[in-house]
Amino acid sequence: MSENHDEHITPYKTYVIIWLILMALTVITVYVAREIDLGSINLFVAMIIASIKATIVALFFMHLKYEDSITWVFALYPLFLLSLLIGLTSIDVFNRIVP
Amino acid sequence: MATGTAATISEPSFLEYKSGFRSWFYTTDHKRIGILYLVSISIFFIIAGSIAIVMRAELFTPESNIVSPHTYNVLFTLHGSLMVFFFIVPGISASLGNFLIPLMIGARDVAFPKLNLGSYWLYLIGAAILLFALLEPADTGWTFYTPYSAKTNTNVILLTLGIFVLGFSSILTGLNFIVTIHKMRAPGMTWHRLPLFIWALYSTAILQLLATPVVGITLLLLIAERTLGIGFFDPDKGGDPVLFQNFFWFYSHPAVYIMIIPAMGVISEILPVFSRKPIFGYKAIAYSSVAIAIISFFVWAHHLFVAGISETAAIIFSFLTFLVAVPTAIKVFNWLATLYKGSIQFHSAMLYALSFLFLFTVGGLTGLHVGALAADIHLHDTYFVVAHMHYVMIGGTVMGFFGALHFWYPKWFGKMLDDTLGKIAWFFVFIGFNVTFFPQFFLGVQGMPRRYATYLPEFESLMKLSTIGSWILAIGMIIMAYNLIKSLYSGEKAPDNPYNSLSLEWQTSSPPILENFKEIPVVTDWSYGYGKKG
After folding, report:
1. Distance from CA of A16 to the nearest CA of B (A)
2. What are phi and psi of B193, to 5 degrees?
3. Could you give the ipTM of this predicted complex?
């Protein structure tokens, strides 16, 4: 039953490019936070950049891009759970009757 | 159902091939690790059970006369924490799962044997931290609700830290089991030939892997609030105390299923063997385990109905709670159908399995009472909840655990249990359990709140009855422990397959050799084909 799938070997060049992209996104995060006042949107911008970085790390550094479908299921299911935790808790928070 | 399994094996068993402390403490053999877990969880079960006996003794009279109210608070905190985190969560999964998964799928070990040993060591480290926590034990209850847990002077930090470390043990065990079941199955062991116990442990492992980190982070946030003063849960610092309950139950409700699903797997193995019938509705039982694992994440806020959550959320969660009853009921109906017209043998393991069917159904149905919004307002935090929870946890999980102990004992230790003594112990356990907890439903409906060392005189007769029940239960446990230990030394030698079971673990020697099978078996059929002619 054990399956032998081919190990994908990522070239160093790809890792360096990904690292540079991550560094650039870090600089953008700091720059947006310090220099540009977007008000309440600031948080969303920071979260979106962080999400992009996490996705890149998962895809390339953690090899998710080259994995089979079951690994994808296990990688994405926690995101679904996170959305569930935030979504269903929000139903409570936004519908509370505050005296 | 399998070819390639040797009928007689002359190699030394996993118990005999090496001896001494180091051979156990550094072992990477899944069977030995399973036994290490079994011994460890049994120790915690005895400690937590003894605490329960002291608590019930205190409740024999309305006044506080054996322990002080503060000590009583400490006792129920310890009882709950030990039973939940140190016994039931790792119980069937880590001890029986470790021993049985490779044997049942035809593998030589789990996928990551060293990680497996690491998981056990983490369990020990968690236990050691807990021992330090006992120097000034917490009095918050096992749920550690804020704001009290953020303010009490007792040692909440060490206890939660111990549970945090324990969480990693649970996560890594879950990860190990998932990979093992995916990658290590014997040739021919397709998903639809897998024993239902394996399906159950697979579903449990998903929960362990995905839900446990949430409680770990929640307890870390609590520690951060206590030590650094960061306002996660304290309203004075901009926090929200209900947030703690949301986080806590996001793990702890799925954790209820981490506790019960493995027991359901045990029942699915015992019933067909002692009914001599194929399991009814194999796929329905298998997929309902996965369905429970998924739906259990949608229901957590039913623990918060009276905590001030919005009506909209409460209505949605009440509805979702009723959904989880569906896959659970599917299992119960299929088990009953398995028994129908079966050639039933009342072996002691079967008696525990039948008790599970009856008691878990009571526990499950009373769960619907507290899942219903209007009823919950009356029943919340009363003895009704205590009774419901114990009918699920003891009536369900512990009965399944005891059934498993009696069923697989010959495979583990190569000795037969004294079945007559096993039946006597079962009788005391079954009667004692019901006498202890059934009156608590009535106490709850009449308004007796949980977690109080004293009570009004009107509750005295039912409280006394409940305490007497705890003594009967304890007698049953002592007889069982005597039987388990006595049989190790003087039990009759067990044959390889004493029940003529068809699943793989019985096709090797009792106890198994170091690497389980002489040759990896080739599976040609499922393991529930009982009662076929010819």
Report:
1. 31
2. -110, -5
3. 0.80
